[in-house]
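User: I'm designing a mutation panel for Pyridoxamine 5'-phosphate oxidase N-terminal domain-containing protein and want to avoid disrupting the core. Could you give me a predicted structure to guide residue selection? Please restate the sequence first so the numbering is unambiguous.

Assistant: Good idea. Sequence first, for numbering, then the predicted structure tokens:
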Amino acid sequence: METTGIVRRRTAERMRDTLERLVTERDMWVSTAHPDHGPHQVPLWFSWDGQAVWMCTSATSVTVRNVREEPRVRLSLPDTFDVVLLQGEAECFLDQEVPAAAAEAFADKFGWDPRVEEGSFMYVRVVPRTVRAWRGEPELRGRVIMRDGMWLEH
């Protein structure tokens, strides 16, 4: 792994960079698992409301099926050098029952409102309990920037 020129960020800087990416990025990998069917991973669009990640998918998707059986999920932004991993429990909201602010923020970000589509969609909300962030090997130590739902600032 090439580490030349990497400057190790402090926790507060990693947290700031992570929050900025959660606001600006579009795609997130969502990893779920089902006790009988095993693991499943899929990229989904997401929005960040300052406390939680919101995604939307078909109400009959494997992701929704898995979350209903096992709500623990792992999420990751797609960059494999500037890594951001989130872990938490997912909660599902039918498209007609989702909080309006979450649905409107999602529609504003993507120009697509699942609530007006044919078929049934499910919004999936994940409040992170653990967040890890690092850039390359020099930042592996101290990569946990949220623990038990609390941001670490040291």
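For picking mutation sites, this is relevant: The chain has one domain: 11-140. The two ends are 27 Å apart (CA to CA).
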